[in-house]
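Predict the 3D structure for this chain.
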Amino acid sequence: MLSNAYAAVYFTCADDGIGRFDRSMLSQQDLMELFIFCLNEPEKICGSRDDPDDVCEWEGVTCNADGEVEKFEWTEKYEDGTGTLGFEFLPCSMTTVWMFMNALSGTIHLADLPGKIEVVYLCDNQLTGSLDLDKLPATVRELDLSGSKFTGEISLEKLSKCLKYLALSNNQLSGTIFLTSLPPALDYLYLDNNNFQGSLDFTRLPKSIHQITVHENRFSGTIDLGNLPKSMTFVNVTNNALSGTVRVPRGLRAFLDGND
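Done. Predicted structure below.
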């Protein structure tokens, strides 16, 4: 069980040279206790705050055959789902985090996600701060950070090569975006309901892409939908400041209303 001397444990395990927490110096039991103790009513997850059950027996935790924590699910708590997220406390073996439809707050640091992480769903929370997508672990395949209060600019040019699903809708993100260097495996990209601006280049999208939503932003200029990948089935650019005439390819569901 984790020592009550939380601060002492944290600073003992930190690398003084770079100021980063070293998760390898704690057991997965201790790490997960540190992680959930930042959430509302952790005893509903671990059984007892003073004497937690074995982590593989916790509510929402899935372990593999070797007893390593692989998945944590804490969803749909709504206003009762308060707390903050310390990704540095997730065990190295963690591959999936589902914590959507809660009231989580504070900032997150994507660089602190464990090196084996593949799926992160944090949609519909109250998270704030900026997003450094360049620091995502190379293993990430699905990332949903929609429906929070993230701000600032983002870069889509150095995303994980195996990323298939990226949802950043309904935040307060801003700046320009470049769609010409997206991951080759990307299937779905959702950027709608933000404050993005600038032009949109749809001529060099990944061959795997199926859907893109960029509606309810401030994009301007003309768009060319004539060279979309054959896999593309859906695009929504409504309610921007786009102009010109657009030829819609056969078989594509394109929503273009609310532009110049």
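The domain at 66-255 is CATH 3.80.10.10 (Leucine-rich repeat, LRR (right-handed beta-alpha superhelix)).
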